[in-house]
Write a structure and sequence with these properties.
The chain is of the alpha+beta class and 336 residues long. The chain has helices at 3-25, 32-37, 60-71, 76-88, 133-143, 151-160, 171-182, 252-258, 260-269, 274-289, and strands at residues 52-56, 110-115, 121-127, 148-150, 199-204, 210-216, 237-240, 244-250, 296-302, 307-311, 317-321, 326-330, 332-333. The protein is built from ten helices and 13 strands. The chain is globular. The structure holds glycine.
């Protein structure tokens, strides 16, 4: 069994175990209050030593790439770009990078951002024909006086810094787009692993410094011009190296209205654990919008390496990797 198969197997096993527990004990596991006591903390009294990687969805292979990179002494930004680029290059991942599902006009448009341990950030939105938007975002962070570059300007900047043009529409995504048109081209906001798996990655190195990155092709068949939460600092990703970091997946419009990752970091600043902060940010969304069918998933890590994850609906998985383990777990969710 290779690593990807092992991760898939583990995630399926955990899903089964979780469902079995619910059956056995009749637990409403996903009650937000139960979630608070069901801590995901890795360490109560001591900082976790050695690098850690926490990622939305089943991205254990990318986690391993980031972990190995940090172990080899690469910077947090280099490790993030290497690991997220791996996912962007994979045509089987149809919500990120090459092979991402296109917008209503059949054009693949990508969003990404990165925020480092020094609070420096870079972002590209609505970028086209650039296979690795996370690398373009990193170039913006390091070589531009700006934080966000968009559309044609973002592409021009990426090309000026040595990136290449690539047709991002894979045969599979083209086929799905044609099928969507054939069926009447109705836009759906369903955001779960089957059709939406933005990669948001948080890395903590052995010195305890934290950085994060986020990359997506956004909602399948979205309106032309739409930009989601993923490239917006404070929405799709937020890092404060003194406190911790958080990243989001799911329906970007909801995350944008709540600045959920900024909120998670602020809640941690006020003393919440990453787990309790994620749960409270999800509760805040529910209280504001009474959302019942749309998905948002949040993950977080704090300065000492404790982690947290929560979502609105079941089915949001996150991947955690450190020197000892690679796990894929389902987050606690508000509705079961
Ligand atoms: N969360 C990614 C998006 O909505 O585009």
């Amino acid at each position: 069994m290779d690593l990807a198969e092992t991760l898939f197997f583990k995630s399926e096993l955990m899903k089964f175990q979780r469902r079995s527990l619910i059956k056995l004990f009749g637990l409403s596991v996903l009650s937000p209050l139960a979630a608070s006591s069901c801590s995901l903390n890795r360490s109560k009294d001591l900082s976790v030593s050695g690098p850690q990687v926490l990622t939305t969805w089943n991205h254990g292979v990318a986690n391993k790439i980031a972990l190995d990179s940090m172990n080899e002494g690469m910077t947090l930004s280099d490790s993030l770009v290497k690991a997220i680029s791996h996912v962007e290059n994979d045509p089987k991942d149809q919500s990120v990078g090459y092979g991402g599902r296109p917008d209503e006009d059949g054009t693949v448009t990508l969003d990404a951002c990165i925020m480092d341990e020094n609070g420096e950030c870079g972002s590209v939105t609505y970028i086209q024909d650039i296979k690795n938007p996370i690398e373009a975002a990193r170039l913006v962070k390091d070589y531009s006086p700006h934080v966000i570059l968009s559309g044609a300007g973002a592409q021009k900047f990426a090309l000026a810094h040595g990136m290449q043009l690539t047709d991002l529409l894979s045969p599979e995504s083209r086929m799905q787009y044609q099928e969507w048109k054939r069926k009447g081209a109705k836009y759906k906001t369903e955001a779960n692993i089957e059709n939406h798996d933005t990669i948001g990655m948080l890395c903590r190195n052995k010195e305890g410094n934290i950085a994060g990155g986020c990359s997506t092709s956004g909602m399948a068949f979205k309106s032309a011009g739409r930009v989601g939460d993923s490239p917006i600092i404070g929405a799709g990703l937020y890092v404060d190296n003194r406190i911790g970091a958080s990243t989001a997946t799911g329906l970007g419009e909801i995350v944008l209205k709540n600045l959920s990752t900024f909120l998670v970091v602020e809640l941690m600043r006020n003393g919440k654990s990453p787990q309790d902060a994620c749960v409270e940010a999800i509760q805040r969304i529910i209280a504001s919008y009474k959302i019942k069918k749309d998905q948002v998933g949040l993950i977080a890590i704090n300065k000492v390496g404790e982690i947290g994850a929560a979502s609105i609906l079941p089915g949001f998985f996150y991947s955690y990797t450190d020197q000892k383990e690679i796990v894929v777990n389902e987050a606690v969710s508000y509705y079961d």
